[in-house]
Design a protein that fits this description.
Enzyme class: transferase
GO cellular component, one term: nucleus
Strand content: 5-15%
InterPro entries: MT_TRM10-typ, MT_TRM10-typ_sf, tRNA_m1G_MeTrfase_euk
CATH topology: Alpha/beta knot
GO molecular function: tRNA (guanosine(9)-N1)-methyltransferase activity; tRNA binding
Shape: globular
Strand order of the largest sheet: 3-2-1-5-4-6
Catalytic activity: guanosine(9) in tRNA + S-adenosyl-L-methionine = N(1)-methylguanosine(9) in tRNA + S-adenosyl-L-homocysteine + H(+)
Largest sheet: 6 strands, parallel
Order of helices and strands: HHHEHEHEHEEHEHHH
Distance between the termini: 77 Å
Number of strands: 6
CATH architecture: 3-Layer(aba) Sandwich
Radius of gyration: 22 Å
């Protein structure tokens, strides 16, 4: 009797999923988790806004109102920055997820900065595309391509675009002295380098035979000199274009690690 019940139970079990079906299910679950996380964050922000005083609420509403215009302005005519996503084979799945989160954070930064970024994502395919889509890629006002950086540079030359491509690398010999969106296109290596592998972006620039430069911010970095996240690099470029001061740009770029609602609340608490 007991053996018969076990047999019946086995027969009632769901059929085994194929490998592709398991991948689809895993992707759907991860996308749902990301959506739930975004809702939780939005709820916390709403709670923070609800306890603001009237002046702080008005400032918050003003900035949020400008956000959509800022994103569209960046998409059409912002500071051109390419994120080179051809390092995926050198990263773990966890590092690729972290990279997607950093790129998602750039969308938030772009809503607030005075000079928004025209963001270009190269090599958007495979697992990187999946992770970016979980964060909302389809809704972002960004330019993204399946083509790699070399093909995109070649396309630009064929179209007669005369701007200079500058690959930002912490291992470059020369410093970036200015940010000029009319004359230059800036490239940031899209990789999360937890082990700090040197010369990766410099070697890529040399392979592509394009200029490489580093940000002159070494003296401002306290503690261990780890590579900056790509979202912070993007913020620094925009802030330097605004203030023409690398120290100010570096210090202000750290503010974006805190939500807009939290920053406005702290500012008004200081004033009081």
């Amino acid at each position: 009797m007991q053996e018969q019940q076990i047999q019946e139970g086995l027969e009632q079990k769901k059929p085994k999923l194929t490998r592709d079906e398991k991948k689809v299910l895993k992707y759907q679950k991860a996308k749902l988790r990301a959506k739930i996380m975004r809702k939780k964050i939005a709820k916390k922000v709403k709670q923070k806004v609800n306890i603001m005083n009237q002046e702080a609420k008005e400032k918050y509403s003003e900035i949020k109102h400008l956000a959509k215009n800022n994103l569209q302005l960046g998409y059409e005519s912002g500071i051109p920055i390419y994120i080179d996503l051809e390092y995926d084979i050198l990263m773990t799945d966890r590092e690729i997820r972290s990279l997607a989160l950093q790129i998602a954070h750039i969308q938030g930064i772009n809503k607030e900065i005075k000079f928004p970024i025209q963001l270009h994502l190269t090599n958007v395919k495979g697992i990187q595309k999946n992770e970016l889509e979980k964060q909302g890629l389809q809704k972002w006002p960004v330019h993204h391509y399946e083509l790699g950086l070399q093909d995109l540079i070649q396309e630009s030359l064929e179209k007669g675009i005369q701007k200079e491509f500058i690959y930002l690398s912490p291992d470059a010999d020369t410093y970036l002295e200015s940010v000029d969106p009319e004359q230059c296109i800036y490239i940031v290596g899209g990789f999360v380098d937890r082990q700090v592998q040197k010369f990766m972006s410099l070697n890529k620039a040399n392979t592509l035979q394009i200029c490489s430069k580093k940000l002159p911010i070494e003296s401002f970095i306290k503690g261990a000199k780890r590579p900056l996240n790509i979202d912070r690099v993007v913020a620094i470029l925009s802030l330097f274009y605004q203030h023409k001061d690398w120290k100010v740009a570096y210090e202000q770029s750290d503010n974006f690690n805190i939500s807009l609602a939290e920053r406005i609340t702290r500012e008004h608490q200081k004033q009081e």
